Amino acid sequence: MTPPAGDIAIVAFAQSDHRRRTDDVSEVEMLMPVLHEVLERTGLKAGDVAFTCSGSSDYLAGRAFSFTMALDGVGAWPPISESHVEMDGAWALYEAWVKLLTGEADTALVYAYGKSSAGEVRDVLTRQLDPYYLAPLWPDSVSLAALQAQALIDAGETDGPALAAIAARSRSSAAENNPHAQLTGFRPHGDHLVHPLRTGDCPPVGDGAAAVVLAAGRRARELCDRPAWIRGIDHRIEAHGLGVRDLTDSPSTRLAAQRAGAFERPADTAELHAPFTSQEVVLRKALRLDDTVRVNPSGGALAANPVMAAGLIRLGEAAAGIHRGTSDRALAHATSGPCLQQNLVAVLEGEPRAA
To answer: Rounded to two decimals, what is the model's pTM?
Structure first.
């Protein structure tokens, strides 16, 4: 029997401590404790999981089919039903959600990892660009984000002090709520890295991993006291050419949110995948978030930004708030590509609590 779309939930979430460098461990060694922790929270063993899906990048790892090595952390014998996306783990979660919708599985393990410290991540991300017009010029990810920030400033939608306040709020929240974060507490906003962005406007470079467990229907209630039900999820993409986009807006985020049901009633929490302070400005407008919504209580990507796992962490953090009872309805957002090119939005809800 195929479950209804809103009858699938995130029932567990775990993440690593995010560090500037993890030269002392491999991807598998970094990932294994996270996988063990997320399964222990449900009481499941790897062999009990009906479907496994991962997200990572061969460009970051510097070798082809690097994700096959990470399967050592899961255990691929006896044979498992497994898939992989060359994307942030948020899109692996989307694939697992679709798998559960088909009724072919009632549980799924989703994980993602990235070791950005192994190379120059600003240059690696250039490979995402249009291969004919943009990539040959080698504009790095920070420079492109600076173009977006300058467009927002020119449009009168933000300024330097406002961006600094976003960074300060995010890292202060991480100090209070997130023991896994890489950057926490007060930090000087720093010098200009690429005008108008200062070092404080940019995400840390670091390594980390995350995992979630999904379950459908009755199985979700068996595995978690308060499941985070995925009431809607959708992802959309902007035009590839930056020159044909309005960088001060994100129509794809707005459309994904609309299709996911985000505008049907207000959320109390939003976990936004905004690696740069200026991108939070764009996302708040696209998602119609006012000051009543707690934005990035975990600190967001400004506190820890493991490439290929940071989006999945936003979904996991939003779900964890529902598990703890600190949130009832949360928005989770993930992005991929330059200047918020591709965006995923999910609406998570907990069941009403007894009065």
So the answer is: 0.96
